[in-house]
Amino acid sequence: MPKIGAKLLELRRRRDLSIREVASRSGLSASAISLIERDKMSPSVNTVSAILDVLGSTLNGFFASLESTVGYSPFYRSSELVEIGNPKSISYRMIGVNHPNREILILHERYGPGADTGEAFAHPAHEGGMVIAGAVELTVGGRTRVLQTGDGYYFDSRERHRFRNTGDEVAEIVSAISPPTY
């Protein structure tokens, strides 16, 4: 299993930057950077993106380099899924991080009660998924629907969209995004 923190540490050292410099430029605390680099804290995608901006890399480039550090296998145990979200609010566990020439992003998503992706956003891709537990409110291009366990969705991600758990229990989705955004 690739370690995100170790790879970030390697990038920072190659650029001869201190933790304080990365923290200052990224808007994060030095202690957060240190915890992330030691794999003691699971950073959100936005946090990784902010660090990578300082380090002169992109999410695509970063995860592509992680792919090359792990031998390919078509099978993934739950413990081998890479967390690219925030397990305390919205967890995004990535399936197939080490697959060569990956053309689809497959995620196991978990939304805590009240978790929300925030302001509606858009990106060039298509995405689809199925709610496997709980319920999620999905807004796509101004249309909103609450999806229950067993319900699915598919849309062009260039339409602004937002996910929100309006319930009192954890909601889970298995989703796919193509082309992969990370």
UniProtKB/TrEMBL annotation:
<dbReference type="GO" id="GO:0003677">
    <property type="term" value="F:DNA binding"/>
</dbReference>
<dbReference type="InterPro" id="IPR011051">
    <property type="entry name" value="RmlC_Cupin_sf"/>
</dbReference>
<dbReference type="GO" id="GO:0003700">
    <property type="term" value="F:DNA-binding transcription factor activity"/>
</dbReference>
<dbReference type="Pfam" id="PF07883">
    <property type="entry name" value="Cupin_2"/>
</dbReference>
<dbReference type="GO" id="GO:0005829">
    <property type="term" value="C:cytosol"/>
</dbReference>
<dbReference type="InterPro" id="IPR014710">
    <property type="entry name" value="RmlC-like_jellyroll"/>
</dbReference>
<dbReference type="InterPro" id="IPR001387">
    <property type="entry name" value="Cro/C1-type_HTH"/>
</dbReference>
<dbReference type="InterPro" id="IPR013096">
    <property type="entry name" value="Cupin_2"/>
</dbReference>
<dbReference type="Pfam" id="PF01381">
    <property type="entry name" value="HTH_3"/>
</dbReference>
<feature type="domain" description="HTH cro/C1-type">
    <location>
        <begin position="8"/>
        <end position="62"/>
    </location>
</feature>
<dbReference type="InterPro" id="IPR050807">
    <property type="entry name" value="TransReg_Diox_bact_type"/>
</dbReference>
<dbReference type="InterPro" id="IPR010982">
    <property type="entry name" value="Lambda_DNA-bd_dom_sf"/>
</dbReference>
<keyword id="KW-0238">DNA-binding</keyword>
<protein>
    <submittedName>
        <fullName>Transcriptional regulator with XRE-family HTH domain</fullName>
    </submittedName>
</protein>
